[in-house]
């Protein structure tokens, strides 16, 4: 497969709700080859859920493809539940999936917030990982959040950022993340919905992808609600970790895991400097900066890089098994 196009659409051979706590059950799909090379897809957000197109990165004859909606979003229940919902709970959910299916080691395939989740899982369970493919590195540092929600991106999309900022009264504009968080959880439903619409559509506008359709309807979409509420829950609470540089400060634990990184040169949602900093601390890393693209994994240039990584892994596994 030399052109690295998306594979044809497939349906799961198994889908189910997996109870992971007294509160939460997560939606899980298994696709492709049930006896194939296990790989798990980690979606972004947090709160975005996964879409059907995510299945198409993978060769269904070769890979045992696992996808799941993280707590509180997509088809997982309860929808929008924020109790027992942080990145460390998600790590344990992944481990419950692995044990439920009966996988020894697997490959992680992640984008955006999913890269932070993949890295934290790897820090906790390095012995369970064969390889990692990461797209759009998000280290969830204080500077990452300030770049997007307070300063930085405003210099590239000044008009769009002005609209995002001007929705908030001037006396609260020194902390836009906090101001939006308060409105998302306001008893004033009209105010909440207006804030959610501005938050989510600002993010879509700066994603810089021809494949992202910005909804023009007056009514907000269900997916916009979950994205805004769960994102702000994580980000306002500093990802629920005390160390503001949690991932890089613990990277020693995973420095020898084979990791493939693809990052768009013009990715404004997650910064290319994060991919560079991460790669510098890894001993077994391939970093590809994809020119001329932004944050979405579904653009032609980015998807071809990701699919090539997956095809390269097939070749490596073939050689590891003693074949030439």
From TrEMBL:
SUPFAM superfamilies per UniProt: alpha/beta-Hydrolases
Residues spanning the membrane: 106-125
Coiled-coil residue spans: none
Keyword Cell cycle: no
Top-tier EC class: hydrolase
Keyword Nucleotide-binding listed: no
GO molecular function, one term: aminopeptidase activity
AB hydrolase-1 domain segment(s): 38-300
Signal sequence annotation: none
GO biological process: proteolysis
Catalytic reaction list: Release of N-terminal proline from a peptide
GO CC annotation terms, alphabetical: cytoplasm
Active site, per annotation: 112 (nucleophile), 267, 295 (proton donor)
Compartment(s) where it occurs, according to its Swiss-Prot or TrEMBL record: Cytoplasm
One Pfam family per UniProt: Abhydrolase_1
EC number: 3.4.11.5
UniProt keyword terms in alphabetical order: Aminopeptidase, Cytoplasm, Hydrolase, Membrane, Protease, Transmembrane, Transmembrane helix
Family note: Belongs to the peptidase S33 family.
Matches recorded under PANTHER family: PROLINE IMINOPEPTIDASE
Protein name according to UniProt: Proline iminopeptidase
Organism annotation: Fusobacterium animalis
């Amino acid at each position: 497969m030399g052109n690295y196009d998306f594979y044809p659409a497939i349906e799961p051979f198994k889908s189910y709700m997996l109870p992971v706590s007294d509160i939460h059950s997560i939606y899980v799909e298994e696709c492709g080859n049930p006896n194939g090379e296990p790989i798990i897809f980690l979606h972004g957000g947090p709160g975005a859920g996964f879409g059907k197109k995510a299945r198409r990165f993978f060769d269904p004859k070769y890979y045992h493809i696992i996808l799941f909606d993280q707590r509180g979003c997509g088809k997982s229940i309860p929808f929008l539940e924020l109790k027992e919902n942080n990145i460390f709970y998600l790590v344990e959910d992944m481990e419950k999936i692995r044990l439920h299916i009966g996988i020894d080691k697997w490959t992680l395939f992640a984008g955006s917030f999913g890269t932070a989740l993949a890295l934290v899982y790897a820090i906790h369970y390095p012995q369970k990982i064969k390889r990692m493919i990461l797209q759009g590195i998000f280290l969830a540092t204080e500077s990452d959040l300030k770049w997007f929600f307070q300063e930085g991106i405003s210099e590239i999309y000044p008009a769009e950022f002005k609209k995002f900022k001007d929705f908030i009264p001037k006396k609260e504009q020194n902390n836009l993340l906090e101001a939006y968080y308060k409105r998302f959880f306001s008893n004033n439903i009209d105010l909440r919905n207006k804030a959610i619409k501005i938050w989510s559509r600002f993010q879509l506008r700066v994603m810089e992808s021809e494949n992202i359709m910005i909804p023009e309807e007056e009514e907000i979409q269900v997916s916009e609600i979950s994205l805004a509420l769960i994102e702000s829950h994580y980000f306002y609470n500093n990802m629920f970790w005390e160390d503001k540089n949690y991932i890089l400060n613990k990277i020693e634990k995973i420095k020898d895991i084979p990791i493939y990184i693809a990052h768009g040169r013009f990715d404004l949602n997650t910064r290319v400097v994060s991919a560079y900093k991460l790669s510098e601390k890894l001993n077994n890393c391939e970093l590809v900066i994809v020119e001329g693209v932004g944050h979405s994994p579904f653009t032609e240039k980015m998807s071809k890089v990701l699919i090539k990584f997956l095809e390269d892994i097939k070749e490596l596994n073939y050689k590891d098994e003693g074949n030439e």
